Amino acid sequence: MNTKPDHSGIIDYNAAISTDIDENYRLFSRIFQNDDTVVLRIFENRHDPSIRFLGICVNGMIKTNSIYQSITAPLMQMQFHENTDRMQQVQKEIITSLDLKSRITVSDVVQDILYGDTAIFVSGSGSAVSVETKGWSSRSISEPDSEKSLKGSKEGFTEAMIVNTSLIRRRILTSDLKFQFLRLGTRTNTLVCVAYMESLVDKKVLTDFLRRLKTVKSDGVLDINYINEQIKDRRYSPFKTSGSTEKPDVAAAQLLEGRIALLVDGSPIVMTVPYLFIENFQSPDDYYLNFYFASIGRVLRIIGFLVTISLPSIYLALITYHREMLPASFSTAIAEAAKGVPFPTFVECILMLFVFEVLRETGIRMPGKIGQALSIVGGLVVGQAAVEAKIVSAPMVIVIAFTGITGLIVPRLNGAAILIRLLALLCTAILGLYGFVLFMIVVLIHLLSIQSYSYPYIALSTQPQAVKDIYIRAPLNKMKTRPMFAKDRYRR
After folding, report:
1. For the CA atoms of the chain, what is the radius of gyration?
2. What phi and psi, each to the nearest 5 degrees, are found at residue 452?
3. Deepest of 67, 129, 223, 369, by most Cβ within 10 A of its Cβ?
4. How confident is residue 398, by pLDDT bands cut at 50, 70 and 90?
5. CA-to-CA distance for 290 and 287, rounded, in angstroms?
6. Angle 431-437-443 (CA atoms, 0-180°, nearest 5)?
């Protein structure tokens, strides 16, 4: 079936490829018109000029030398057999690349070309062959800034999909590791990869995850979050129900526990599901350090999160509503420090939290060393100046500073901590400690109601093997079972 000239101006991407080289040249010239990065070239066989070829590729996404050495030069010099299928001879005898794909529709060819392959057409053949010639530049492998590790691997994912899959494959040398490729984004046609261990993954979770991916209807998928926000459980919850990492060793460990990983071409972040609340407090270093130190660090993170969401509210409640609960000397010292401050305690707290978040955000957005200096100097200068000017009291500065420091110990929950802290302050300002306790009960009920791909977000159990890696990190020789969402739970 030949592609007929379309005088309506509409291109039928589902049409079959024409046997006429000139017709194919005109068609793809229309498809890629006004795009100077796309190269189209017609060339002939030296022994038989009637045998013509059309090559199409995107400049900047290919290895130019490999195209000449393994494609164009052999095609021009090859002697074709009579009464044989030329395309089959090209695939079997001429092109030496291991990655060849035969294409019969225009849409498939366009997709391959835009992803760095080179499309070859042969006169008289109603199909094309896509040759793997990708050769774009990418960032080298380095340790991610967001997941610094004291011990263990220093490698991090990059923006290149093939590099990221190889980093995982190097760590799990088994055919049980599977990679499934999909394309999402109606305009970007972004390549995404679903990775899992076939013998460990829960098939129901995998089916549900693939179904959710097919519901993504965005024009563009440029990062993992473009997908995550559309397929996550409890979309409006401040808590994450899917994990993310930039470290291949972490992703490999998650796969070995029966989880599913999602990679997006162009993003160095890998998403993992299902995801439990306790994972917010886990660190890759927990499994590279002695279990005593790892357990202490995890307990400190949990305490730090509880402090950062509750300390301002408890201070506000004690100062405003329940001053009788404080020792007389302590209450007097606070009252003396607050003398002359024009704002009530609630306004003081909100003002200082706002200033702290502004300084923190500015430090993040500024270049490395400048941002660190700005955060430290800004905090010292603003805090000292505010106390001397009697805008805020010194105890409030101490409370907010400690709140901010403990908030940094669990960066994965930073967004949720800010929202919970603010709402808790509002409830405390209205009802005192009663309002704070009621709000915390609501938060706990919300956490218990969340599920991540049909698994409870907070796992409650009294069995030792169920809590071996929850609040503390047990010795590795005692961790004999996988998490509850692994198909094979009884063998580590």
Report:
1. 30
2. -115, 100
3. 129
4. confident
5. 8
6. 115
Amino acid at 157: F
Q: What percent of the chain has pLDDT over 70?
A: 91
Residue 258: partners with Cβ closer than 8 Å, 6 or more residues away = 197, 200, 201, 202, 482, 483, 485, 486, 487, 488
Give the span between the Cα atoms of 245 and 400, in whole angstroms.
Answer: 30
b/e burial code for range 407-422 (CB count within 10 A of at least 16 → b): bebbebbeebbbebbb
61 vs 177 pLDDT, higher one: 177
* Span 203-252, pLDDT tens digits: 899 999 999 998 888 888 888 888 988 888 888 889 998 989 999 999 99
Residue at 317: amino acid letter? A
Block residue for tokens 């010639």: 133
Q: SS3 string of the chain? A: CCCCCCCCCCCCCCCECCCCHHHHHHHHHHHCCCCCCEEEEEEECCCCCCCEEEEEEECCCECHHHHHHHHHHHHHHCCCCCCCCHHHHHHHHHCCCCCEEEECEHHHHHHHHHCCCEEEEECCCCCEEEECCECCCCCCCCCCHHHCCCCCCCCCCCCCHHHHHHHHHCCCCCCCEEEEEEEECCCCCEEEEEEEECCCCCHHHHHHHHHHHHCCCCCCCCCHHHHHHHHCCCCCCCCCCCEEECCHHHHHHHHHCCCEEEEECCCCCEEEECCCHHHHHCCHHHHCCCHHHHHHHHHHHHHHHHHHHHHHHHHHHHHHCCHHHCCHHHHHHHHHHCCCCCCCHHHHHHHHHHHHHHHHHHHHHCCHHHHHHHHHHHHHHHHHHHHHCCCCCHHHHHHHHHHHHHHCCCHHHHHHHHHHHHHHHHHHHHHCHHHHHHHHHHHHHHHHHCEECCEECCCCCCCHHHCCCCCCCCCHHHCCCCCCCCCCCCCC
Which range, 349-358, 359-368, 466-475, is most confident? 349-358
Cβ contacts of 72-79, under 8 Å, gap ≥ 24: 72/43, 75/43, 75/45, 75/120, 76/43, 76/44, 76/45, 76/46, 77/45, 77/46, 77/47, 78/45, 78/47, 79/47, 79/48
